[in-house]
Structures are given as structure tokens and as C-alpha cells.
Amino acid sequence: MATHPEWATKHKRKGAELRLIGGRYYLYEVTSKWDPVKKRPKKITGKLLGRITKEEGFIESEKARLRKQSLSLSKLTVKEYGITSFIFSQLGEYENLLKKHFPDHYKQILVLSYGRLAYHSPMKNMEFHYHHSFMSERYKRLKLSPKHLSVFLREFGTQREQIVAFFKEFKTEKDNILFDGTDLLSKSKLMGITQYSKSKKGSYDFLTNLMFAFSVDLQLPVYYRLLPGNIKDIKAFKLCLEELNVKDAAVIADKGFYSQKNIEGLLAGQLKFIIPLKRNSSLINYQKIADSDKKSFDGFFIFHKKVIWYYTYPVDGLKMNIYLDEQLKTEESKDYLNRVKRLPDKYSMEDFYHKQYQFGTIAMLHNTDKDPERVYVNYKSRMQIEKMIDVFKNILEADSSYMQNEQALETWMFINHIALHWYYRIYQLLAKFDLTKKFSPRDFILFLKEVRKIKANNVWMNAEITNKTQKLLDKLNIPIT
Prior knowledge:
By secondary structure, the chain is of the alpha+beta class. Among the domains are: 6-70, no CATH class; 165-401, Alpha-Beta Complex (Transposase Inhibitor Protein From Tn5, Chain A, domain 1). It has 19 helices and 18 strands. Strands 10-11-15-14-13-12 form a six-stranded mixed sheet. Strands 6, 7, 8, 9 and 16 form a five-stranded mixed sheet that branches. A hairpin with a 5-residue loop joins strand 7 and strand 8. Helix 4 (92-101) crosses helix 5, helix 5 (106-119) packs across helix 17 and helix 8 (146-156) crosses helix 17 (406-432). It is elongated, with a radius of gyration of 30 Å.
């Protein structure tokens, strides 16, 4: 029998076995089980407890530490309650809709969406947040370890048809739907959907592209689709419209989108579009503005208390709408002249005279049947989806992914989609009570996280909250019970 050094044997304990493997000492769980064939106890080696070194003694393994932590979490008597209560009392329809479309997985989706909204949590920390919240009392004994979540992510991500059916729950008749794309930095090169490509920022990296849809009427994100990183927006518009079953939608692009190739692609796909042009485009005719005679314009309308003049002319079978905001023209002219004074090396009066008729204008090339006012309003609404993408990337911190397969990435995106919904619902609530200037959705979430439940004598009770939190809840008419 091998003789082990005293510095190793002194760490032996009941229910554990010392093992020498590859010149190193390890401590394993050990139990025994009766062997009915051999008529004697049979040794069963269990999980690794840690390793032993002469210098540091017993060093507990990471997995053993996490197992102990998980066990202690189940005995917590103080848990987050505010966000949990808000989700089920104010956003209860999401539980019903998720249960309708995903009866086997709706609890996991709700809990993981909670983790993304409240903590921007990566998957590896979801179990920790679950045990610290009242979600673990609402949905008991959910398996959210990294191992279990790995299986769940792959399984749920195969349900694209049900995911699209969920999207369609938020459609309204004659809705104005905005589409826009962005890129998602991928930390995995194993997926076919991840491609080395040029990002929106102009740099090259391994990317997955995302197409989003935003409902102007509902003020909510209503759709997403994952695309290979080397597939650009124009190739994806038509299939996205067909999948969401949107009729008569118009692609509203940004100023960098226009090119003859892109126009030909949109027309070939029989897509409606509204595309703003850069002010120096050769397609724009500023003559009516230069003549300073409003009689030559087609008319005007009021937008956000501003007078917007417009005129229209044909361009290669398309329509060109030119808009003039005289208030903006005055501001831009003044700004440019100030630069001429302050930075004469970069700005000159000659340039001012050349640009003077461009100030305060927007030019829109389109093939829709919309009147000029509706085209203008639709374009101005585009900033809403740009803001939504900003929330997705910078507020929810979902601008990159560590998912290792496309199914897991699909699940990850759907969880973020629900969290994004909730963020916008919070914003709508604050707007309803005219509180958006004082509080952001992020502020509101921080206040709610301070609302906790305490378990005493086997009874859950509300913990004390600050006067500021209580006043905010009272203003929003949100009881926490």
C-alpha cells in the first residue's frame, strides 16, 4: 500500500478519498453501496472536492464551491421583489402569451428575461439572480445551472415558427412598421451565421447581422431576424416582410443607404422605399428654393409646431420630395457663419454661398403612394427604431454574443426581445404620468430593485422601502403587495 506524506493525509475527512493522480493529490467524495452479487459493499467515487498541495494545503475546486453556494442560496430569507411584482402585476399578459406559444418553456423565458432587464446578466449568472429574487418563489425549482441552460438554449432556439407567431400577437391593422438592421459582434467563429465582414462602424470583425422591426403605433419592437454577417439589409428586407406578413410596408433607409445598385435591388424585389439623399446629391434641384418664391412650392404642413414647405418632381420614374424647414435653415446658416468667423482656415464665405440653398432641407427619393406630409412623418419616425437599437446595444448591453450555435443565439435574442419590450413598457408608463424628464426606465428599475421581501417565522413580508421609492410607486399607481 502506498504511503502518502503527512501534509496530504491530514486533509482526509469522513466521506472523502485521497487520490494521487499524475503526481498530484486530489480529494474526492466517496460513498459505498451494497453489491448483491459480490455480497459486500462497493465503493463509489463521487465528485471532485479539490486538490492538495504542500504549500497551500487543501484548495477547494470551483465546482465544489459553486455547489455549496447554490445550496446556501436556496436558504436565503431576503429576496428582490419589486421587479418580480411589477412583471406579474403590470406585464401579466406576457406570461399568458408566452405560455400560449411556449407551454414547456415560458417560465424559463420569463426568468431569463427578468435577469436581462434587471441585471443585464450573462447566462452563467442567471441561476444566482434567480435564487436572489422572488422569481424563485413564483417558479420553484427551475433548473438554471449553466449545464441545464446550455441544453435549454439549443432546444428553444429551434422554435422559430412559434417565435414568429408570438411576434404576430403585437400586430395592429394599418400599422406603421419600421425596419432597420444592425450588427452583433460574435465571440464564436463556429457558427455559419457568423461571418468576417464590415461593421456599421466601418471596421472588420466576425459579425452576425440583425434585422429589427419597430411598431410606430404600439411603440414596441415587434420582430427580429438573425442573418449571416455578410448579408446586408437590402437582401433581407423582402423575406422579413414575408415572414412577419406585413403588407404595404415601406423600407425607410438612412442617408448613407442611397446608391444606384441599392435602388435597383429594391425595385427588383418590388419593395416600397423612402430614402433620404445627401444634400450634395446631383439628383436634387434647389432652384425653387433659390428663387425664394413660395408660390412655386406645392404647399406646406405643420410638423411639431414648425412650418415645412415642400415640392415634388419625378426622377427616373420615382418621386423626389424636397422639404424646407425655414427655422432650421436660419439656425444652420447662423452656425455656418459663426464657423467662418472662428475657423477661417476651414470655412469660407464662398462655401457658404455654395451651400446656402441646402440649409434647412431634406430630400426624399421614394416610390410610394404616400402624400409628401406622410412621407416626411414616416421618415422622422425612423429615429425611433434607431433609439431602440441603441437601447438594445447600450442599455441592455446586448451588442455582443458568446453563444456557440445558431439555436442558442436565437434563444438569446428572443430573451433580449422580451426584455426590450419590458423596457419600452416602462418608458410608456413613465410617459403616461409625465415623468420621463425626471426618471428613465433604468432609474425605475433601480428603484424597484430596492423593494424586497423578508421571510420571518416562515412568512414572507414586505421589507421597508425609502420614501422616494414609495412616492414614485404612488405616482405611477403601482401597489407592491
